Amino acid sequence: MSIQNLKDQLPDYARDLKLNLGSLASEPALNEDQKAGVFIASAIASRNPGVIAAIVAEFAPRVSAQTLAAAKAAAAVMAMNNVYYRFTHLVENEEYARLPARLRMNVMANPGTTKENFELWSLAVSAVNGCGKCVSAHERVLRETGMSTERIQAAARIAAVVHAVAVTLETDAAAAQPAVAAAA
């Protein structure tokens, strides 16, 4: 599996996704580790096994095992944090936001990559998961490190396209299920 395999699986109505996926795979605003990490973490956040397999097959050989593990760690810890912090943001009782989270997040102190990379990957996962509080927090930290809006936007664009590819492939697979069942 690879990016090309994903593009080949997309239906004609998703031509824009094919084009975007291809151009973002060679996005010049991000270095190779940043780009690979955003793709991998976003694919994991998409929860689509085929998308995860294709993205990891495409990008894992381009980075170290430590970078791959850090991208997976960003997806894992943000899966937890996005739910928790989205809860504290959406609930109408401000007392929850004042309470300590009391959730282990040790990987954020020593993620196995640069702080900038881990923050960028966390931002991408948070965008996929729809946690506004986390998106804002990670964007602010990235801007404080001096990262340009163009690089941050590139990560958000990758997250958006990877998620859209996963949704499109799941939609087509679900639509094909009744046809398979009816034919049986």
Describe this structure in words.
With 184 residues, the chain is mainly α. The chain has one domain (3-183): AhpD-like. It has nine helices and no strands. The protein has helices at 3-9, 15-24, 32-46, 49-59, 65-90, 95-98, 115-129, 132-144, 149-183. Helix 2 crosses helix 9 (149-183) and helix 3 runs parallel beside helix 7 (115-129). The radius of gyration is 17 Å and the shape is globular. The chain starts with a helix and ends with a helix. The relative contact order is 0.17.
Q: How would the blueprint of this fold be written?
A:
Blueprint (H helix, E strand, L loop, with lengths): L2 H7 L5 H10 L7 H15 L2 H11 L5 H26 L4 H4 L16 H15 L2 H13 L4 H35 L1
Question: What would the keywords be for this entry?
Answer:
single chain, 184 residues, mainly alpha, AhpD-like, 9 helices
What is CATH's topology name?
Answer: AhpD-like
Task: Label the overall shape.
Answer: globular
Number of helices: 9
The largest sheet, given as strand count, sense and whether it forms a barrel, is: none
User: What is the terminal-to-terminal distance?
Assistant: 29 Å
Q: How do the helices and strands follow one another from N- to C-terminus?
A: HHHHHHHHH
Question: β content, as a range?
Answer: under 5%
Please give the CATH architecture.
Up-down Bundle
Q: Strand tally, please?
A: 0
Tell me the CATH superfamily: AhpD-like
**Rg on CA atoms, Å:** 17 Å
| Unreliable residue stretches | none
Structural class: mainly alpha
Please state the average pLDDT score: 94
The CATH class label is Mainly Alpha
Q: Please, how many domains?
A: 1
Overall helicity:
over 70%
